[in-house]
Amino acid sequence: MKGKILEIENVTVSFDGFKAINNLNFDMEQGELRVIIGPNGAGKTTFLDVITGKVKPTQGQVRFKGRNTRSLSEHKIARMGVGRKFQTPRVYLNLTPRENLELASNPNKNVFSTLFQPPSVVEKQRVLDLLKTIGLVHKAEMKAEFLSHGEKQWLEIGMLIAQSPDLLLVDEPVAGLTDEETEKTGELLMSLAESHSIIVIEHDMEFVRQIARKVTVLHQGSVLCEGDFEEVQNDPRVIEVYLGQQDEE
Ligand code: ADP
Ligand code: MG
C-alpha cells in the first residue's frame, strides 16, 4: 500500500524570533528517494530536526505515516520508524563491522553480550545480508577503527538499516569521501531506496546528479522549488541563491 510517508504543513520554527523554518510545506510518497539542497543556513538541518522531533514546530504540523508527531518524543518517533544518519559516523571503533551490526540489529543486546554470546542463525544471516548490502563482507572481522571514512559511513548506514526504519534521513553522506567512495555511497542509497523512503541532504552536485529523482531546494526556511535535477539546476532562482554561491563555500 502506497501513500504519503511524510506530510509537513505550514511549519515554522522560530529561535528567539528568527525563523529557521518559515511556513514550510513538504510531502513525500512512501518509497521515494528525495534529495534536499540549499545554501548554508537554509534550514536543512533544522528541517531534519523537525522530522525527528528534536525540534518542535512553533507553528504547523508534521505527520509521519499519517500520524501527527507533535506530542511524541524523539525516541518514540524513532521507534515509529524514523532513522537518522548524522554527518560524523557513530560506530564503535573497537568493535568489528560484524559486531557493530549485531549490536544494532538487536536492541536488547549490549556490547558485553554481543562479544560473549554467539548470535542465532537468523541473526547471523541478517548481519551477513547487511554486510553484503554495505559492501563490507571482506572487512567484517577487522576493528572499525581501521575502516576508511567512507567505509565507516556505510557501516553506520548499515546499522540504521538494521533497525528497519521506514524513513531514513541522511545528512551530507559524502562530505570528505573520495570520488570512488562517493559513487559507491550513491549506489548504496539507490539500492536501499528500493525498500525504504529516504531523504538525503547534500551539497555535492555531482552526487546529487547521480542519485536524484526529485530535488527540493530550501532557501530561508522555505521550499524555493522542486523538480528533477535538470529542472532545478536550470531554475534561475536556484542559480541565484545556491549554485551561484558554491565557490564561496
Ligand atoms: P543548514 O543546515 O541549511 O545550513 P540550519 O538548519 O542549520 O541550516 O540553520 C538554519 C538557520 O537557523 C541558521 O541561520 C542557523 O544559524 C539558525 N539556527 C539553527 N539552529 C538554531 C538554534 N538552536 N538557535 C538559534 N538559531 C539556530
Ligand atoms: Mg546543516
TrEMBL record:
Membrane-spanning parts: none
GO CC terms of this entry: plasma membrane
Keywords in alphabetical order: ATP-binding, Nucleotide-binding, Transport
SUPFAM superfamilies found in the cross-reference section: P-loop containing nucleoside triphosphate hydrolases
Domain of life, per lineage: Bacteria
UniProt keyword Iron present: no
Domain ABC transporter residue range list: 6-245
UniProt-listed SMART domains: AAA
GO MF annotations, alphabetized: ATP binding; ATP hydrolysis activity
PANTHER family with a match to the protein in the record: CONSERVED COMPONENT OF ABC TRANSPORTER FOR NATURAL AMINO ACIDS-RELATED, HIGH-AFFINITY BRANCHED-CHAIN AMINO ACID TRANSPORT ATP-BINDING PROTEIN
Name assigned to this protein: Urea ABC transporter ATP-binding protein UrtD
Taxonomic source organism: Pseudanabaena cinerea FACHB-1277
High-level lineage: Bacteria, Bacillati, Cyanobacteriota, Cyanophyceae, Pseudanabaenales
